[in-house]
Specification:
Elements (H helix, E strand, L loop, with lengths): L1 H9 L33 E4 L2 E3 L18 E3 L10 H5 L6 E3 L23 E3 L18 E3 L10 H4 L7 E3 L23 E3 L18 E3 L21 E3 L23 E3 L18 E3 L10 H4 L7 E3 L23 E3 L18 E3 L21 E3 L23 E3 L18 E3 L10 H4 L7 E3 L23 E3 L18 E3 L21 E3 L23 E3 L25
Parallel strand pairs: 2-3, 3-4, 4-5, 5-6, 6-7, 7-8, 8-9, 9-10, 10-11, 11-12, 12-13, 13-14, 14-15, 15-16, 16-17, 17-18, 18-19, 19-20, 20-21, 21-22, 22-23
Antiparallel strand pairs: 1-2
C-alpha cells in the first residue's frame, strides 16, 4: 500500500486551468515590492513628470532621467555642458531650468534643443554663454538668457516663435551689431523684452509690435532712430534710464505713436528739455537726474493724463517753472522737484495736486498765496531749504485743509509757523534753530501723531505752559539733540515713543512720566545720567514700557522695567 501511495504523490497533477492561478502568489523572477520609479541619484522626483536636481553641485548631466519628465530643474549646479544625447531623449520637456551653472557656448551644441519640441520655459540665466543658441524650439513661451556674456544672437534664437511671450537678455554684452534686424521676426506675441545692462548705442529697430514692457536701461543709448517705436502701439512701460540720451537723440515723433504708454523712465540721461510728443495716456514720467533748465507748457500739452512727474536733481532755477508751465496737467497727483535751484514755490500749480516734494532747493519764503492753488495737498515737503520764520506768512497754510504730512526740516526757523493745518498727522521740524515752543502754533492739532523737533536749541524753560495740551493723539515725540536739562513736564497722554537722547538731562524725578501712562519706548542715550540720578518710582506707572535706552551716559545706567500686566484667564478656562 505504501509504495502505491508514494507513486500517487509523485505523479504530476492536471495542468492548471487558465485564469485560475493565484494572482497574489509570486512567480519566478517577480517581487512583492512595486518597481521603483527611475530618478537620478540624489535628485528628487515628487511626481512622475518632475525631476528636481537643484543645488547638488553636479558637474555632469545626470543620467537615468525618465522619458516622461516634463519639468527638469538643474539650477545651482556646476554643469559646464549639455550632452545632446541626453537631452534628445527628453522630448516631452516643457520646463528646463539651468539657472546658475557654468555652461559655456562651447558646451552647448547648436542642436542641443532640437528635439525638445514641447519646451515652453527655458532658463539658462547666470551661465557663461558668449553667444546665444542658434536654434530654440518653436514652442517656447519664456526664454531667459540673462546674466551671461552674450555678444550675439541669431535669427532663429528668438525668431519664428509664435507663442513666445517673454525674453530676458539683461546683463549681457550685446551691442547693436550682435542683434540682427530680424531677431524677432515671426514672434508676434512677445509682450516683455528685457535688454537692460548691455552695450546698445541706439534703440534696436524692428522690435516686436506686440511689446507691452521694454527694458533698455543701463545701456549706451544716445539716440532713438526715427520710427523705431512707431509700431509698438501696445507698449505700456518703457525703461530708458541710465543711458546717454540727448535732446537731439529724440524728436517729436519718438513717443507720439505709443498710444498705450503709461510709464516712461528717462532719468539719468543728458536731456536739457522735456521731450516733445508725449502721449495722452502717460501716467508716470521720470525725468530726474538730467540737465533740464526749464519746463515748457507746450511740451506737456499732449500728456494731459500725467499723474506723477519726477524732475528731481535737474537744473531748474528761478525761471525753471514759469507760471502755467504745468497748467496742462490737470490731473497731476505728485510733483517731485527735489534738488533743484528753485527759490520759491512754483506758481499756478495744478489744482488737484496731492504731493509736492521740494526739499533741497533755495526756497526762502512762503507767501500768503503761494499755496492757495493747491487746496487738495496731502503731502508738502519743503525740507532743507532756506526758510526763516520771519518770511513764512501766518496764512501760508490756510487753504491746505487736507494736508496730512508737512516736512520743514533743515531750514532756519526759530519758532513754529502759525496757522498750521488742523488735519496734520506728521510734522517734521528737526534741524532748524527753534529756541521756543508756545501753545498757540500747536492749537487745534488734535490729530497729530508724530512730531519731530530734534536737533534744535530747545530748553525746558523755553517750552511754554500748555504747549502739549491739545496734542491729544500724539504718539511719537522726538526732542533729541536739544538743550534739555530734565524731562519736560505735562507731555501728551497718548505718547508711546519719546526721544530725549543727546540732551543734558542729569535727573529723572519720580513724576517725570506721570502724564504718559502709555509709553512703550524711551530713549535717554547720551545724556548726563547716573544710577543715583533716576528715581526708582519714575517707571512704576508705565505698564507698557518695553524699551529704555540709556547707553552713552557717564556711567552705566540699569533700568528695571515695570512688571507686565498679567493676562486674564482664557475663555473657557478653569
Amino acid at each position: 500500500m505504501w509504495p502505491s501511495l508514494l507513486l500517487l504523490l509523485l505523479l504530476p497533477g492536471p495542468p492548471p486551468v487558465a485564469g485560475l492561478e493565484d494572482a497574489a502568489f509570486p512567480h519566478l523572477g517577480e517581487s512583492l515590492q512595486p518597481l521603483p520609479r527611475a530618478c537620478p541619484l540624489r535628485c528628487s522626483c515628487p511626481r512622475v513628470d518632475t525631476v528636481d536636481c537643484d543645488g547638488l553641485d553636479l558637474r555632469v548631466f545626470p543620467d537615468n532621467i525618465t522619458r516622461a519628465a516634463q519639468h527638469l530643474s538643474l539650477q545651482n549646479n556646476q554643469l559646464q555642458e549639455l550632452p545632446y544625447n541626453e537631452l534628445s531623449r527628453l522630448s516631452g520637456l516643457r520646463t528646463l531650468n539651468l539657472h546658475n551653472n557654468l555652461i559655456s557656448s562651447e558646451g552647448l551644441p547648436d542642436e542641443a534643443f532640437e528635439s525638445l519640441t514641447q519646451l515652453q520655459h527655458l532658463c539658462v540665466a547666470h551661465n557663461k554663454l558668449s553667444v546665444a543658441p542658434q536654434f530654440l524650439p518653436r514652442s517656447l513661451r519664456v526664454a531667459d538668457l540673462a546674466a551671461n556674456q552674450v555678444m550675439e544672437i541669431f535669427p532663429l534664437t528668438f525668431g519664428e516663435k509664435p507663442a513666445l511671450r517673454s525674453v530676458y537678455l539683461h546683463n549681457n554684452q550685446l551691442s547693436n551689431a550682435g542683434l540682427p534686424p530680424d531677431a524677432f521676426r515671426g514672434s508676434e506675441a512677445i509682450a516683455t523684452l528685457s535688454l537692460s545692462n548691455n552695450q546698445l548705442s541706439y534703440l534696436p529697430p524692428s522690435l516686436p509690435p506686440s511689446l507691452e514692457r521694454l527694458h533698455l536701461q543701463n545701456n549706451l543709448i544716445s539716440k532713438v532712430p526715427r520710427g523705431a517705436l512707431s509700431r509698438q502701439t501696445q507698449l505700456r512701460e518703457l525703461y530708458l534710464q541710465h543711458n546717454q540720451l540727448t535732446d537731439s537723440g529724440l524728436d517729436a515723433t519718438t513717443f507720439s505713436k505709443l498710444h498705450s504708454l503709461e510709464y516712461l523712465d528717462l532719468s539719468h540721461n543728458q536731456l536739457t528739455t522735456v521731450p516733445a510728443g508725449l502721449p495722452r495716456t502717460l501716467a508716470i514720467l521720470h525725468l530726474g537726474r538730467n540737465r533740464i533748465r526749464q519746463v515748457e507748457a507746450a511740451r506737456l500739452h499732449g500728456a494731459r493724463g500725467l499723474r506723477y512727474l519726477l524732475l528731481q536733481h535737474n537744473q531748474l532755477g528761478s525761471s525753471g517753472l514759469p507760471a502755467g508751465a504745468l497748467r496742462p496737467l490737470r490731473g497731476l497727483h505728485t510733483l517731485h522737484l527735489y534738488g533743484n535751484g528753485l527759490d520759491r514755490v512754483p506758481p499756478a500749480l495744478p489744482r488737484r495736486l496731492r504731493a509736492l516734494v521740494l526739499p533741497h532747493n533755495h526756497v526762502a519764503a512762503l507767501g500768503a498765496r503761494d499755496l492757495v492753488a493747491t487746496p487738495g495737498l496731502t503731502e508738502l515737503n519743503l525740507a532743507y531749504n532756506r526758510l526763516a520764520s520771519a518770511r513764512v506768512h501766518h496764512r501760508a497754510f490756510r487753504r491746505l485743509r487736507a494736508l496730512r504730512s508737512l516736512d520743514l526740516a533743515g531750514n532756519q526757523l526759530t519758532r513754529l509757523p502759525m496757522g498750521l493745518p488742523t488735519g496734520l498727522r506728521t510734522l517734521q521740524l528737526q534741524r532748524n534753530q527753534l529756541r521756543m515752543l508756545e501753545p498757540e502754533p500747536l492749537a487745534g492739532l488734535d490729530q497729530l501723531r508724530e512730531l519731530s523737533l530734534a536737533h534744535n536749541r530747545l530748553r525746558v524753560g523755553d517750552i511754554g505752559p500748555g504747549t502739549w495740551h491739545e496734542l491729544q493723539a500724539l504718539q511719537m515725540l522726538d526732542l533729541s539733540h536739544n538743550e534739555l536739562s530734565f524731562v519736560p513736564p505735562d507731555l501728551p497722554e497718548a505718547l508711546e515713543e519719546l526721544h530725549l537722547e543727546g540732551n543734558r538731562i542729569g535727573h529723572v524725578g519720580p513724576e517725570a512720566f506721570l502724564s504718559t501712562p502709555r509709553l512703550r519706548a524711551l530713549f535717554l542715550r547720551a545724556n548726563r545720567l547716573h544710577m543715583t540720578s533716576i528715581a526708582a518710582e519714575a517707571f512704576l506707572g508705565l505698564p507698557n514700557l518695553r524699551v529704555v535706552d540709556t547707553a552713552g551716559n557717564p556711567e552705566q545706567v540699569l533700568i528695571r522695567l515695570p512688571p507686565t500686566t498679567p493676562r486674564g484667564p482664557r475663555a473657557g478656562g478653569p
